[in-house]
Design a protein that fits this description.
This protein has 200 residues and is of the alpha+beta class. Helix content is 24%, strand content 39%. An eight-stranded antiparallel β-barrel has the order 1-5-4-3-2-6-7-8. The chain is globular and about 50 Å long. The termini are far apart.
Amino acid sequence: MQNAEIELKFPVSDPAALQSRLPQLGFHLETPRTFEHNTLYDTPARDLRARRGILRIRKYGPTWTVTHKRTNGTENPAEPSRYKVRIETETTVADGEALGHIFEQLGYTPAFIYEKYRTEWSTLDPDTGTTPHLVLDETPIGTYAELEGPPAWIDRTLVDLGIDPATCLTDSYGALFLTWKQRTGSPAENLTFAAILTPA
């Protein structure tokens, strides 16, 4: 399935307080807190990264998913969007480990691994008839919420939640990890709980 993904992140200091408000705003729990493991693949020359694309195999609970994301080709670097917009093609697969071996035979190798515990909430946007999502991601370097849906819905939801738009981010978890490494001097190479939370 291919679609345009429009999203915005913001840091969350009190996950329980945030989630307690969601039912009052019409959100329904879609997936309880579930462990997620992601591997990004790229060429040794990082060709995908240079084109701002990703090739990812994700295991979310028992489900394997392969995802390719690319820019929509209309971005103007001089006028960056306050939202993150990607063209996403995604499908479930039966055996993610086998697919990873196939990628490696084709010249793509694991470039970055990141883990989190994700809780998914969804709601109905009456203006568009779509089903936007709020996901809560507990990562080894902090907790973030991600709003995915139409821009007008994202803006309304930020107001409803009392979130300052100035705190919102479009950074990937890879970019957030690199910023964290620069700030902390951590030698970790991947955003995993073992690499970051386990003493050396």
